[in-house]
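cache lookup: miss for this entity combination. No prior model stored, computing from scratch. Input as submitted by user K.M.:
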Amino acid sequence: MDPKLNPQQKQAVMDTEGAILVIAGAGSGKTRVLTERICHLIEIGVSPYNILALTFTNKAADEMKERIERSIGTSQVWTSTFHSLCARILRIDIDKIGYSKDFTIYTEQESDRVIKRLLMNMPSLDPKKKGEYLWHISHAKTLALSPDEYWEEIKNDDSDADDIRKIYSQYEEELKRCNSLDFDDLLLKTVQLFETCPEVLAKYQRRFLYVHVDEFQDTNRLQYKIMKLIAQGSGNVFAVGDEDQSIYSWRGADIRNILDFERDFKGAKVYKLEQNYRSTTSILNAANRVIKNNTARKDKTLWSDIAGSDSIEYYEAYSDCDEAEQVAKTVVTLVKGGSTYRDIAVLVRANSLTRLFEEEFNLNGIPYKVFGGFRFFERKEIKDALAYVRFAINPADSDSLLRVINYPRRGLGESTVNELISSAARQGISVYDALMSGAQLSAGAARKLEPFKSIVCDIISASASMKPTEFMQYVLRRSGIETFLSTSTDIEDASRLDNVQELVNAVSQFEKDNPTLGISDFLQSVALVSDVDEMDDQNYVSIATVHAVKGLEFENVFIVGLEEGIFPTQRAIVSGDIEEERRLMYVAITRAKRKLFVLNSRSRYRFGKTEYMPKSRFVGEMSGIKQSVRYTNSGYAQGNGGRIRLGANAAGAGSVMKNNPFAPKKSEVKSADSGIDFSKFVKNTVVAHTKFGQGIIVETSGEGEDKIAAIAFKGLGVKRFALAIAAPYLTIIEN
DNA sequence: GAATAAATTGTTTTT
DNA sequence: CAATTTATTC
């Protein structure tokens, strides 16, 4: 065992039997305690096969597995997220509760489409309330309540209770017909399986003799129930959490789980880890001062003995562009001072705030990667291609079928499709069955559907015989996607074609990594991956939401957009429920190991107009007593009444930026001698960028070393590059 | 039925 | 502003 563990950590590691709750502050080494404990269990003779470790993300699961493997040489420990665990359990035994094992996992996007489709046939309900309905359905499922039970629960205080019951039960029936499970179902059906089939539960209780749960504060009631059911077999359960870092209550995470733990597991022991090994004292003090403003918490004060007196810097920008520029400038300085890009993170409250940083980083040649926001597998073209695969595996999956019934265009319009849908609805069968039988369809509709019908048949029969990669390629060919995209005149379709090609590569990689698995396993892994899961070892700055970096740490952290209305969000301010926002701020601060930069902007361009917002209350809360917060530039640019905005005239904003004493001199930022002929880069030149692919120069400005090119990339929009920096990444294709 | 033009709407956070 | 939905025209 690691001799560097402190006494509390050691205790938690050594205490292997019974129920244990570890309250572990940010950076207190909880992941290490978890892994050490699992290694310790194996060392004292527990079979890795009997150990379960549940984490919040797949990435955390993989990392833990890797650490265990490195330290003890076994990979037999089952580490996964709750959702992955449930998916695997259900693949084996879900037929016992009336589903087929080929079930499809619906993401929120698909649930959304299903609701939309259902609402079309429910004229008494308001389609505008779709979001509300979805929230209620998810909420009800998390509470494990049926439509009727949930109605009982809310009928007195929600005037929409009747409608909610109606749509919820319709939704349930439709998902059942589609043989599909949404994210909540993965958990709920597992609980139901355990409750209806004690022998199945017993199987897992016998298998998982030591249950571990990481990020316990962010588990919901269903997850708690699953944990409880499995762990009640052996009574050995080890949960690690920190109520100050609970940032997912909007998704159903329930702090009661921590409180109930001691009640449900009699004789549970509680350990506290309060020493922080991550951050300097000044960063930690700031974090403590912020979180102390929350009333709903047990008092706990993290401490650290890592020196570092002036490690927090504050900057008030006069515009969002200035803020981004300041960050870019500081990144350049940091790297000059010996930091590497991968040690730097820019944290935002919402995905929409990442864009300016991307632009500014491009301009300065800073490599970066954005986490959160649109994921590869959520792109339309990928979803479309995969929809064919999905109904090939599970023909009952009407949503996937309808998604691509007229994609690529094959002359099937609203009327034909609606006829098919209502025919299916009338007969109470899946859309696929209605399509195949052709019963109750007009002769015209049946004739029009014929070509699609044969595509469906071909793809389904191919799925039975082909290997994943081969099948994926077949789907693209037979569906007509390949022909459509490659002959399209829309420039965006060229990059879609690239993405679809990338999908084939992903399948091929999956096949190589998992030779025994099929394409349906690929689909499942796709449904359950998140963005941080894809964080790799490349050297780039991470631009991410605070939520996305939970559990991660960086040497240098920028927290940006600290304004009332952004962080905390308007919503939190209006509802008065500010504590979760504060916890989020706490999480953000505690990601930093050495250097923390805190920024806000006086003005921000949103929804097509400039808004002025006061700085976040959290900034004030950080500064508090000590002077660990240093105001580096409280005297921001005057004049203009702060009315500074790019967009309408970029030149104006650029000149204003030069007034900023902290802004970089452009010559400083750029590489000294490039020896590149910038005159080649003129308007309408087609270029290939190593990262963004093919694009066309739509505008240039400046000359020589200062030349900037605006390049339009298919599917990515226009990005601006300083050629002195970007040129090495650019190849001229044609002019 | 499909291509275009006009109008509208929206921003948390994600397994 | 940009993305998506709805209306209009062919």
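stored under new cache key. Residues 624-674 of chain A have pLDDT under 50 and may be disordered.
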